[in-house]
Amino acid sequence: DIQMTQSPSTLSASVGDRVTITCRASQSIRTWLAWYQQKPGEAPKLLIYKASNLENGVPSRFSGSGSGTEFTLTISSLQPDDFATYYCHGGYIFGQGTKLEIK
Amino acid sequence: QVQLVQSGAEVKKPGASVKVSCKASGYTFTSYYIHWVRQAPGQGPEWMGGINPSGDRTSHAQKFQGRVTMTRDTSTSTFYLELNNLGSEDTAIYYCAREKYDNDKTDAFDVWGQGTLVTVSS
Known about the structure:
Chain A is an all-beta fold. Chain A has strands at 4-7, 10-13, 19-25, 33-38, 45-49, 53-54, 62-67, 70-75, 85-90, 93-94, 98-102.
C-alpha cells in the first residue's frame, strides 16, 4: 500500500511569511496528488489538484509542485485565514496533516 | 449551487450497522464519481471507497472488505454508504465527496458534504 508522509507535522509562522509543506509518497504517484485545507468543524477544502493545478476560487498565493514521490505546497505570503491544517492526498491515501499555527 | 447534503448524526451499538445518505444537487448527478471519506476524532481523513458515475462499479479500501456497501438511487439523486459490524474504532465523521473532473478523472475531491457523525458506543 502507498504511504504518504507529510512534514513538518506542526509549523509556526507569522502573517506575511512564505511557508512550504512537503509530502512524500512511498512509491511513484506521478502527479496524482491533491492538497486540502481543513479548519476545525469543517470539511476539507480542495486547494490544489494533479500536483500543481489551482482549484477554482483558491487564492494565487497557494501553489503546488512535484511529481513522482516528492511534492510541495507553498503559501507565498501567509494571511490570517490560512492558519489551519493541511493534508496531502495521493493514491487515495491522505497524509497525517500539517498544522499551521500562528507564531 | 452544487451541494452534497448528508443525513443526521447516528448513535449505534457495537455490532450494529449504519447507513448514511448523501443527496446531490446543482450538477449532473450521473457524471461524477462520489467517494466516502471518514475522519476519526483528532485524526486525518481516511478514504473508504467510491462509486462510479454510472453506479455499476464500486471500489473500496481493503480494510473495509466485507463490511462496506456503496449504492445510489437515481430517482432521488442520493448516494448511500452502509457499514456493518460496527466497532468503537468506527466512531468518526463520515463525509461524501465528489471527485473533480477536469477533462478526465483527477483523484481529487472538490465538493464535500457537511459530514455525518457516527458514534459507536455500548
